[in-house]
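User: structure tokens for this one?
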Amino acid sequence: MAKIKPNVFIIFLISILLIFAIYLSFIGGYGSDEDTLPMIYVFERRLIDGTFVTSRFTGNPVAEMGIGFLSYFFGSFVTNLITFLLFLFGIFFIFLALSKKNDLDLYPYLLLCLSSQVLYFDNLEPIDYSWALFPFGLGFYLLSKKKIELAILLLSISIGARINFLIFIIPIIFLYNYDYKISLNRKIIIFLSIFFVSGLFYVPIWYDYSFSLEWLTAARPTDQGFFGILARFAYKTILALGLIQIILILFTFLRSKTLIINLYKYRVIFFIILLNFLLFLYIPAELSYLQPGIIFLYFFITKFFNKKILFLIIFFNFFSWITNYNFLQIEYKNNNICAPKEAVSAKIKFSLEPGGIQKYLNSREMIKCWAYDTHKERSDKIIQGKALK
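Assistant:
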């Protein structure tokens, strides 16, 4: 497919989005994710008295230490901004690794990624997705350039930030088409090295559980049964990608055999997307679980889709920033914003809802749901987005 020339308008839009991200990082506070404060608490406890705790079942030590350190000493603005920059550099290095050269498709690819509500707004929160994405992207790039030792270190750090990134590392080791010769035995050694080094991050929690593996779990909505999980998976996938965008993607695939051939050629992309969607089917929780799959899908769209389709997807992504179209009316057990959302019924009903920007701004108040504890001074600092030192 012919390359497009550098588009000044695209570069201008990207610049505006980056400036907007800095502004939202400044006003965003400590976000709306219930896992943020537990992650900060992990750092505080280890700093103050050495107590070992984890933020969730497995814990994510790299992100807990990074986010905790920045929040404790610098406050929410720096924490949010660095988290977003890690995401930005992560998608940049993934592009370099997959394209093997810095070609002009970089600009529409960046714009497509930044237009996604999930990729843009969720990475303005002090949470761990981009803390895993950056070392993953950089490690992938280094591996493509035969910097194997550094790649092992970076890819291990990505697993230390989010343990589920282990499954995404398997395709890039065994399915990526390297420019240099690498035997199967060496690939196995690389994987085992990453597995061992990344496992060192989780040795403390393994000790804490008396050498059992019960900590390797997660909260799943199993009470709704398989069909309930499947419905959550389908609905949330549509929310993450957009209904019209999914239709455009499927329609384009069905019309072109060349895309199937290219998908086989870039089978590392196919398997990362597949593994991500299978993981999300197992735990259809936060939309950000789909971030790796969305990024690799967007790379493929940028490279091989007709540019008109590409920019249509970007347009509808940005349209959802202003208003969202929903096709389900869901009734929840509790409408309290601080209570976990538990759906009790749903019916098909098309409606318009606030867009991504308004949802982001409205969700800034949610930090109050988890901020209050016995230390009023600390709670006030959290609500105000200040450093917790």
